Amino acid sequence: MTDKLESLKSELKKRYNTESNVYYDDVFELTDHILNRITEWIKTGQIESNIEAKIYMSSLDNQLTYLNNCLEELDREFVE
């Protein structure tokens, strides 16, 4: 998943010829942090019965939904 997000960031930078964008910078930062935490819990075997992991998974779902909405709006603006 991290590779896909990095690829997406790269493509957005190419499309808009910019290093940052108000639409998605925060989403990528939060998503990167969430994925790093979840990866650590998986590596250390602490993912099961971990309430924090459940909260992080819920947050990841919310961030990805928000990112999808941002991308749809960016596509609409790009076409106009």
What does this structure look like?
It is a single chain. The protein is built from three helices and no strands. The mean pLDDT is 89. By secondary structure, the chain is mostly helical. The protein is 79% helix and 0% strand.
Strand fraction: under 5%
Main sheet attributes: strand count, strand direction, barrel closure: none
Oligomer: single chain
- Output the helix-strand order: HHH
Shape: elongated
Task: Please give the domain count.
Answer: 1
Q: What is the distance, rounded to the nearest whole angstrom, between the alpha carbons of the first and last residues? A: 30 Å
Mean pLDDT: 89
Low-pLDDT segments, ≥5 res? none
Which percent bin holds the helix content?
over 70%
The structure class reads mainly alpha
Number of helices: 3
Question: How many β-strand runs?
Answer: 0
Indicate the radius of gyration in whole angstroms.
15 Å
List its salient traits.
3 helices; mainly alpha
Brief description of this entry?
This protein is an all-alpha fold and 80 residues long. 79% of the residues lie in helices and 0% in strands. Helix 2 runs antiparallel to helix 3 (51-79).
Question: What secondary-structure arrangement, pairings included, does this model have?
Answer:
Blueprint: H1 2-16, H2 25-43, H3 51-79
